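Hey, I'm writing a tutorial for new members on how sequence and structure tokens pair up, and I'd like a real worked example in the thread rather than a made-up one. If someone can provide the structure for the chain below, I'll link this post from the tutorial.
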Amino acid sequence: MTMRIAHVIFSLQTGGAEHMLVDIINEQVSQAEVALFVLNNEVNPEIVGRLNSAVRCRTFGRREGSRNPVPVALFNAALLRGKFDVIHCHNLNMAALLLPSLRRKAMLTVHDTISTPENLTRYNRCFAISYAVRDSVQTHAFTHCRVIQNGVNFNEIAERRVIPLRTGNFRILQAGRLRHKKKGQHVSIEALRILNERGIHDVEIDFIGEGPSCSYLQKLAEELGVSSHVRFLGCKDRAYVYNNIQCYDLMVQPSVYEGFGLTIVEAMAAKVPVLASAIEGPMEVLDSGRYGFLFEKESAPDMADKIIHIMGIAPEAMRASVDKAYDYALERFSVKRTARDYLEEYRRKD
């Protein structure tokens, strides 16, 4: 008998988790009947357009934070009518809106470290995207939380074929929502200022993404005198990102906190070196620096030092390094493996 799976999420915007969810659904639909329910009215047509035509997607138009009970009632009624075997939730607080009869089928993926256990125990089963997130979850509630690591579709990411001797600027990319208190874009800008002070003027940084910190970061770049070396490219669709990671010399992720680090895996798949802050999620992805470079969290001087070190690595040595990182990531962080592991967990009897 074909398994019936409903993935439920508050919004479907351009974040890495949302894109990865679509990848997982597109893998699962070959083995199960899969639906996607989006409760709120924040839906990106580009992401919806990537869904396999066999996936039923329904939106309910609720405004974020609204107390209007009608969208929630319609949402629960649709889940009841669907007679799903699994209701896979991707937001911690979703269980509070589910009917008690539906919670018995509800499973949760926790995408980030958490500080409060609210609503955790309302789920039948819990998954974590990394061991760092699992430890956070188990501190609060679940004695067992299965780790199913995020994955990407390696076939969609263009690889950097050649690492030539550099003749132009050293190009750095940071991709992600512009929320500097989490993603740490301000550290990248401050590191660029330190490089300039040290007489290194051929480094430039592109930021891909939108968010509430955009104006702050633009002003910071101007105040530190590096605005001519910084570009804010805004929101780009995933096809653009996947085709253009290969054009950069380095991907950075200076996050202040991070449950995993999907952009790190995407860079590894593109055979571009990665520099990330030494915190739990990125360290796990990079195997404590074996497959990338790490710097002290929120330390712009250390980030600048590591950039200088990376710039000095010979092309042959860098090629060997990124090839090893690619092989490691392909084995551990393929979306096919992620989707398969979830299906196995759905079928598992407690």
